[in-house]
């Protein structure tokens, strides 16, 4: 998933015209999103089944691949009959 870029803020009033670029915050926000996504996964682990550890390992792998996107997924394995 491509990184989202912040745009500009335009302020137009009777006495003021300003175009403010938020581009300098892009890297900081991306870094914060990566940290938050990783922390959510870490905080979920105590509430996940620990019988074999497979569920946690698969979920960690999928979550790591999505870190920084704002998406966290729990991995549900194939249904056993």
Textual characterization of the structure:
The protein has two helices and two strands; from the N terminus they run ββαα. The chain has helices at 26-44, 54-66, and strands spanning 8-12, 17-21. The protein has a two-stranded antiparallel ribbon. The relative contact order is 0.16. The mean pLDDT is 80.
Please supply descriptive tags for the structure shown above.
81 residues, alpha+beta, two-stranded antiparallel sheet, 2 helices, 2 strands, 40% helix
Task: Tell me the layout of helices and strands.
Elements: E1 8-12, E2 17-21, H1 26-44, H2 54-66
Antiparallel strand pairs: 1-2
Structural class: alpha+beta
Average pLDDT metric: 80
Largest sheet: 2 strands, antiparallel
Distance between the termini: 35 Å
Unreliable runs, pLDDT <50, ≥5 residues? none
Proportion in β-strands = 5-15%
- Structure summary, number of beta strands: 2
Order of helices and strands: EEHH
Radius of gyration: 20 Å
Spatial strand order of the main sheet = 1-2
Tell me roughly what share of residues is in helical segments.
Answer: 25-40%
Question: What best-fitting shape do the alpha-carbon axes yield?
Answer: rod-shaped
What is the count of helical runs? Answer: 2
């Amino acid at each position: 998933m491509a990184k989202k870029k912040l745009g500009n803020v335009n302020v137009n009033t009777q006495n003021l015209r300003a175009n403010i670029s938020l581009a300098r915050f892009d890297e900081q926000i991306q870094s914060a999103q990566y940290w938050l996504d990783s922390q959510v996964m870490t905080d979920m682990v105590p509430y996940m089944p620990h019988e074999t550890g497979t569920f946690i390992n698969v979920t960690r792998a999928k979550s790591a691949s999505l870190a920084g996107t704002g998406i966290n997924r729990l991995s549900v394995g194939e249904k056993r009959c």
